[in-house]
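User: I've been trying to design a sequence by hand for this structure and keep getting stuck. Would you show me what you'd pick, starting by listing the structure so we're on the same page?

Assistant: Good idea, let's start from the same input. This is the structure you sent:
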């Protein structure tokens, strides 16, 4: 297998982002130019696929198939952007979400990469997803399955593993890990990562592990929770904070600070 040119792959994903989210006024004014841009993007994409398989016909077929899916991917991404707008009081407009939110950018790259994965193209989806990882600190494996109206707030440190399944209208905050309990290579073809059902919110720092772990619909997972077992629909899982007022007596056990 040959390796696709990494810089070209990064340029393609950014150009696809810009193409999809050009403002309607610019799109109308530059319709002819945008058609030319789309054809050039498809040609470059096919060249990248060719570098992974050395098969010109396979590259052409994959290029055509991928670019035919762009309207559907675009519609899905509009729902993702709307979900962020509706759930984040700091977000004022869809344009702000699309232009400035790292969680949205990472979701765009995920949805594009996931489609390429479904087409059986090797390596290229990982180049795209790792580029988004480097830009945003959000690591979404392109083989993960994520439903519509998905939102990531802040996002830094989010990890979503290869066999994760996420339902509709799920919101995730920074530092969340949806990971595996076992990283043995002999488990590579098994479901190693959790299932998150519809309408779940997972707050910052939560870690949810294991292929048999299911977070039921409508659940709320609090910050810094560690879960390796399923919870039923409508659950609220959190750590209880305890407050002790300091007095002149020594603490019953030492406080361990690391500086």
């Amino acid at each position: 297998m040959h390796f696709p040119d990494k810089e070209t792959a990064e340029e393609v994903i950014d150009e696809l982002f810009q193409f999809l989210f050009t403002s309607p006024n610019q799109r109308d004014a530059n319709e002819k130019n945008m058609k030319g841009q789309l054809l050039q993007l498809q040609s470059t994409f096919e060249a990248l696929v060719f570098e992974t398989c050395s098969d010109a016909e396979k590259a052409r077929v994959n290029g055509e198939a991928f670019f035919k899916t762009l309207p559907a991917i675009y519609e899905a991404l509009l729902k993702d952007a709307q979900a962020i707008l509706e759930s984040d009081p700091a977000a004022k407009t869809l344009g702000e979400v699309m232009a400035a939110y790292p969680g949205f950018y990472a979701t765009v790259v995920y949805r594009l990469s996931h489609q390429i994965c479904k087409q059986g193209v090797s390596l290229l989806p990982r180049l795209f997803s790792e580029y988004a990882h480097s830009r945003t600190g959000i690591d979404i494996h392109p083989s993960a399955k994520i439903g519509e109206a998905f939102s990531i707030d802040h996002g830094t440190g989010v990890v979503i593993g290869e066999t994760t399944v996420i339902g509709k209208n799920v919101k995730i905050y920074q530092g969340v890990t949806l990971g595996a309990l076992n990283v043995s290579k002999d488990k590579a073809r098994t479901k190693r990562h959790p299932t998150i059902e519809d309408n779940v919110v997972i707050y910052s720092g939560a870690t949810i592990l294991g292929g048999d772990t299911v977070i039921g619909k409508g659940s709320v997972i609090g910050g810094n929770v560690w879960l390796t077992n399923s919870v039923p629909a409508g659950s609220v899982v959190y750590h209880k904070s305890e407050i002790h007022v300091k007095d002149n007596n020594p603490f019953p056990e030492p406080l361990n600070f690391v500086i």
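That's my pick for every position. To get oriented when you compare it with your attempt: The first helix runs from residue 6 to 20. Residues 255-259 have pLDDT under 50 and may be disordered.
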